[in-house]
Amino acid sequence: MTPVAPLSRRSPTHQRWTLDDIPWQSLDRSLIADQELLFYLLTTASFIETATDTYAHNLIEYYAGDEEVTAWLEQHWQHEELQHGCALKRYVQTAWPDFDWDQVYQAFFAEFSAHCVIEALEPSRCLEMLSRCIVEMGTASYYSTLSRLSPEPVLHLLTQLIREDEVRHYKYFYHYFLRYRERENLGRWKIFRTILRRLHMIDGEDSSIALKHAYGIRHSNASFDNRLYRIIQKRGRYLMGPQFPHAMSVKMTLKPLGLNPRVQKTVAPMIAFLSRYLLWGEGSMRIKSYDRMLMDFYTRLRVYALNQWARFAG
Which is it for the CA torsion 86, 87, 92, 93, positive or negative? Predict the structure, then answer.
């Protein structure tokens, strides 16, 4: 494998942007105040980003002994993710001043923190770095989509800045993934299975808990259940789907597999489909079996290999 070059370090106090760089005084509430779906999308994101401390502590403990990784997590990644939470919180409070963010967040965190445990991490350090790559792909795509569809200029700017941070975070996690892959010598099939599993988890319990608390404060008389969650989720996907950066997400998803161009050309359409379905629910089909999904991919790859063999043999 190609040796992994060391990444340049930055001072923990050197940031690409701060909250003071956002023109909060220019925020036009009239363009967004009645956008309930955007309220949910931004509020849930602000809750999860603000809870980064819990994720960070788990990761720092998991990678104890690797000083380079733990220093970056603690001094850079954690710090920037928390800034995302602070910025999104301030935006929500400015755009929807009647929403008691602090009170609702406390209720969210009390439930969320019970599920955010170190045992939920991947069984190896390499696979956890891979998992982090897929998470960063998802967040980079999410904020890119919000930036594209935003009707309000300050939100457009803020989500674009967060998106750039998330892409940079992906590069760091990918760098450390390569390093651990050399140590653990993991095969491509195991890496692929982890990618699929993590894609399936992106729209998971965290967002459901966050949405439950954001929805409950606006609709106190309504009971929030899985059916209602799916309805709101579907509306959000319908809003965001057309603006989702599929090409970027597929490229970031495939990169850890290290495929040659021919194979990547074959695999890319399926990953694009998984991205559209698992992230944004496009299409009417439901994947009922994880194993069946893997078998479908294997069948496609086998057909490709046989076609290539016939081509060269002929």
Answer: positive
Q: What is the rounded CA–CA span in Å between residue 243 and residue 65?
A: 41
**Token couple for 141:** 């795509």
The torsion angles phi and psi of 245, rounded to 5 degrees, stand at -80, 80
Among left, alpha and beta (phi > 0; psi -120 to 50; other), residue 53 is alpha
CB of 40 within 8 A of CB of 214? yes
CA–CA separation, 14 and 64 (whole Å): 25
Which tokens in the block code for residue 181?
């892959």
Chain centre to alpha carbon of residue 141? 7
Radius of gyration (Cα) for the chain, nearest Å? 20
The gap between the terminal CA atoms of the chain, to the nearest Å, is 33
- Say how far residue 73 (Cα) sits from the centre of its chain: 17
Does 3.40.50 match the CATH number of domain 19-245? Answer: no
Give the whole-angstrom CA distance, residue 257 versus residue 264: 9
| pLDDT at 204 exceeding the cut of 90 | no
For the ranges 150-154, 200-204, 237-241, 294-298, the lowest mean pLDDT is seen at: 294-298
DSSP, collapsed to helix, strand or coil, labels residue 8 as coil
Whole-number Å distance between alpha carbons of 214 and 194? 31
Give backbone dihedrals phi and psi of 13, rounded to 5 degrees, phi first.
-90, -5
Q: Decide: pTM greater than 0.70.
A: yes
The predicted structure's pLDDT at residue 238 = 84
**Of 74-78, 207-211, 237-241, 252-256, minimum mean pLDDT range:** 237-241
**CA dist 144 to 4, 69, 237, 277, Å?**
29, 27, 14, 18
Of 233 and 38, more confident: 38
Helix 101-112 with 205-218: angle, nearest 10 deg: 150
**Is 152 buried (19+), middle (13-18) or exposed (0-12) by CB count in 10 A?**
buried
In angstroms, the CA 134 to CA 170 distance is: 8
